[in-house]
Amino acid sequence: MTERPFPEADKTYWRAQLPMLLLFLVLPSVIELVLTAADHGWLATQRLRTTAYQNGAFWTGLLGNWRPNYPGQPVTMFLTYSFLHAGLWHLTGNMMALIVLMQMTAGALRGWRLSAVYVVSAVGGALGFALLGAALNPMVGASGALFGLAGAWRWLEWRQIEGAGRRALTVLRDIVIMVALNALMWLAQDRALAWEAHLGGFAAGVAAMAALPRRRGDQ
Fold first, then answer.
1. Per-residue pLDDT tens for 122-143?
2. Which domains are delineated in the chain?
3. Which of 19, 162, 163, 171 is 20 to 30 A removed from 188 (C-alpha atoms)?
4. Which residues form the Peptidase S54 rhomboid domain (predicted)?
């Protein structure tokens, strides 16, 4: 494996990613804090979370014969679901993962490239859930987009491996690890894990990273 020339995430990097952080980290955090406050009766109505899910979560039934709450909901839900979470712990885990994955892909994903992979992966996660998930259950959370960033990171690593055989073995190993991790999480969360979104997001992230033009200095 050749040495990667990608730079580390420094202060300049984080300043450049401020718009992305405001949109995909701060906004979901504010939304969840408001919903949690409403859950406890500290703000608005305790039905606020239900209302938010009804209008922003991903509902597979809306791709069929369900009636949407507003025009365009069957389209907008492919992205709005990623701004909603199931509670503070769900939010915290996802936002911590976002920071880590941004650090791991800092050299190759900056500015519009990072946002593009994130959005494509969120949509891919929704597609995965639509194709494989249970029609009656809503889906929320940024994990589809996060698995997409993980897929982009793995693509960067795969691209550095010399030899088709070694590369194929590494890809197979990573897929096995991802499947095993999701299986453990699925059991630990009493089968409430949207593994379908993880799979769709990962595949979309790999595809998006492969389709992006290489930056100067990439190998």
1. 999 999 999 998 778 899 999 9
2. 11-211 (1.20.1540.10)
3. 171
4. 76-212
